[in-house]
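Need Uridine 5'-monophosphate synthase's 3D structure for a figure. Predict it.
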Amino acid sequence: MDQTKLKELGLRLFEINAFKFGDFKMKVGINSPVYFDLRVIVSYPDVMNTLSELLTEYIRQIRVDMGVHLCGVPYTALPIATLISIKADKPMLIRRKEAKTYGTKKLIEGKFNAGDKCLIIEDVVTSGSSILDTVNDLRGEGLVVTDAIVVVDREQGGVQNTEESGVRMHSLFTLSYLLNVLLEAGRIEEKTVQSVAKYIAGAQIRSDGSFMKNGTKVVNELSRVGMSFEARADLAKCAITKELMKLIASKKSTLCLAADLTSSEEILNLVERVGPYICILKTHVDIVEDFSENFVKSLQSLAKKHNFMIMEDRKFADIGNTVAQQYAGGAFKISSWADLVTVHSLPGQGILKGLKSVLNDPTQQRGVFLLAEMSSQGNLATAQYSAATMKIATEMEGDFVAGIVCQSADLVASPGLLQLTPGVKIEEGVDALGQKYDSPEHVVKEKGADICVVGRGILNAKNQEDAAKTYRDRLWAAYCERVGVSE
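Structure prediction for Uridine 5'-monophosphate synthase:
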């Protein structure tokens, strides 16, 4: 490798503002004193040519098996991968960020066979999550992925995180190397190098959103599970999520009551008693035998009186046109009164677009919780399905998605999304129909739940009000312990 040419490229990247210094918010949710934007290189053919030549030479030098195919992580790495493909005479694959909704509906474009090997090309790596997203989709099609080539490694955990998933990461530049090149050339001062080095040491990001300090894994205020609801409200993109986080913080309740009763009078009487202790009331209106408009009005009145939101657990799962009618019309007219609804991601983004299409009143804040995992034994929600659901949620987070229904602490990374977890009961176990239950403390601290759903633990209690208060207090204490604040 020509070190002179490598240093010249580093300086050229700085000259064209492909990286800069300041205070920047990163995709992983933390601030950084240095920011890379390699998207600008497409406007500089000389940089593109030099970079692709050096990467091709680097791949040959380190003797990485280029395999049968190359695949650039969308989207910045695509032009880089294209040039390497031409210079190395290797076919390329294109991974879409979302599957097509027409034609072949492919996620991976290009000609390949299961068992073929594919080399990943990426521009900048922080935690390595974008590489792993691409790896998972390629492996889902039967491709073999063992190595990734990146332009810049920010040295914040990407190497370790990708290696844990069986992918070796090789970088042309490290952040430290680039800093030294700029320092030697008199472009930056020593204090800048020291400042960035201190930042790198204190912001080692793990794949589960935790951080490493002095070689020890910790969950701190920079990860979703370590942040307070007040802090996360500022990061939430969905308007109703912001409001719900503020409600939770002010009411000190993460309790969602599943009011699975068949009589409207029973539900209203129950809510009058337990309303002060819950943040969400979850309904299944299709089991209410005497459902009426007056019932809905009474429910809304109680929600306002006791300060909680209403979630209709409809679990929409059809095409956009159908769910739009189910949401706004029919006997229940759900969109007119439910703040939140649950939705299956199986139909793709079209289901969210269909639901949103009927919301014409800008004063009505509405949101959805996407189902990524279920708490019943033998459910068919695979890891790949859960990951695909999170992809939809991330892409539409600011639009309509308030949160995720799941059972895993490491699935929801964004602090702006809420994790809702069902199956909470003081007495752990499994019922006769395969529904699994975990304790309040386990669900909050181990499973990472932000909002916890309790049904029969309250409904079947001798004193429902006392039971609701007990669940609220135990859940809130577990949350306070999780984020390290006093109750």
